[in-house]
Specification:
Layout lengths: L2 H10 L3 H23 L2 H17 L8 H23 L16 H12 L3 H11 L5 H8 L3 H19 L2
């Protein structure tokens, strides 16, 4: 049993300190997953809050893979939110704030633009693998795709990112 599973088991028993540990370890990857899908910083923050609220109110059984479960929850909430917003707004009106965790702004902008050039599915796979720290098998389960398709799409995305970023 890894730390995330121990903390989830403790959260299932009502342990607030364990909930805080889960939050400390998972808030950034979950935020990144939500941001890559929504392309809206405020909306990604709302989704992150909703993920942890749902986790606190109704924690899943500790036997699940917490990282995969939480990433899937963030992904589903982000997709639902984007679909809802598409009905409410013209997508041209949606703000495009971007979260940059490092200080090298030109590089961050280049990487973000390169990621945006990827098709949605490939961008999600790259984000779940890098930011969500998920294995390809977990991504395949979350996205309901064959493992071979996930591996192929990831390699294709990396090739496109290398070409876009100039090697």
């Amino acid at each position: 049993m890894n730390d995330l599973q121990r903390w989830l088991a403790a959260v299932h028993g009502g342990d607030r300190a364990a909930f805080e540990k889960l939050y400390e370890n998972m808030n950034r990857p979950l935020y990144a997953v939500a941001l890559q899908i929504t392309q809206n910083r405020a909306l990604a923050e709302d989704i992150l809050q909703e993920v942890f609220l749902k986790l606190y109110l109704s924690p899943p059984e500790p036997s699940i893979n917490p990282r995969a479960y939480l990433c899937r929850m963030a992904q589903n909430l982000a997709i639902d939110s984007v679909r809802k917003r598409r009905k409410e707004f013209d997508l041209g009106e949606v703000e495009n704030d971007i979260f940059y965790p490092t200080d090298d702004l030109p590089l961050k902008l280049d990487v973000e633009n390169a990621l945006r050039s990827l098709p949605d599915r490939e961008r999600q796979i790259v984000t779940l693998h890098i930011n969500g720290d998920l294995r390809f098998r977990e991504i395949a389960t979350i996205m309901e795709l064959p493992l071979g398709t996930v591996l192929w799409a990831y390699q294709k995305a990396l090739k496109q990112l290398r070409n876009t970023l100039g090697g």
